[in-house]
Amino acid sequence: MQQGIDADRFLDALGLTHQAIDGTENRIELSVYDRAQEIAVEMLDDPALGLHMGEQTNPSSLGVLGHMLITAATIADAFQLFFKYHSLISDAEPSSIHVEGEHAILTYNYPSSTILGNRIRAEFGLVQIARMAKNVISAKMDAVEVRFEHPEPDYVSEYQRIFGAPIRFNCESTQVIFAAGLLDEKLLHGDESVLSLLKEEADRQLLSLNQDGSIADKVESLLLAHIQQGKPSINKVAEYFHMNERTLRRKLESHNTTYSELLTQVQRKVACRMLENLNIPIEDIAEKLRFSETSAFYRAFKRWTGKTPAEYREECD
Fold first, then answer.
1. How far apart are CA 312 and CA 108, in angstroms?
2. Which CATH number applies to 214-316?
3. Distance CA 317, CA 314 (A)
4. Are both 7-184 and 214-316 of the same fold?
5. Residues 188-234: pLDDT tens digits?
6. Residues whose CB is less than 8 angstroms from the CB of residue 103 and which lie 6 or more positions away in sequence, other chains included
7. Which candidate, 192, 229, 233, 224, places its Cα nearest to that of 205?
8. How far is CA 122 from the centre of its chain?
9. Sequence ranges of the domains in the chain
């Protein structure tokens, strides 16, 4: 859509609907995903599609997993979370990391299929990991070397532009090598209290992967994953689920709840968990939850719980 291609035409070519690919619970067969990549390369006339998809990566594209990676304490912790909860985004074998002397070697695993599918998956995976790592640490994270299993393509200059490191092709594994010391680098937005809450949500999603979650559960999960980026309007949430606001309201009412109630529930849950961490100033909590000023947060929390944030924190101590 960003490139001016009609999404419905793309899905029609695959025999898919929006409903078939929405939500964390839904999965498509590997052969269908391969075909999706092949059609996308053709429609966009972009042989380097895997690299360019990786450049579009942001935490929101990984849902609750992406937000967990941001709130982890260190790069090493973020990688462990990525491996542990990988099944939230794919049924493929999770990747792995090991240290050899001064170097850490991340081996990116992916299901083998077509030649084109393999190349796109390898490109997308390594660019995605490298891009997210650079965005969440204060130190500069340069790769020592990047390795790919596929032969060198015609657009090798794109690899150099993106990775800025030596690139090797026809290797035994798809890997990125970097300084082992970076594993201990602290993340800019590490937050133990928020991470704990996100883990609870991730565990819930893992349990429900093979179950049909209600629209109320899905809206709550969406709000929880995005609450620190702002309070999305009901229109935006309805668009995410490919329905209009009226339909979303009606569906939520059938579950005896409203969008406003779910938003309040998520805000209250996140606020309480953050207040339990005595190291986070109340002013910072108000800012993280996107309140215009601390006094507005105080009023809202008193309305939710009958206590002020300070009183709630004192009871937790």
1. 44
2. 1.10.10.60
3. 5
4. no
5. 888 888 898 888 888 877 766 655 567 888 788 778 777 766 778 89
6. 144, 177, 178, 179, 180
7. 224
8. 18
9. 7-184, 214-316
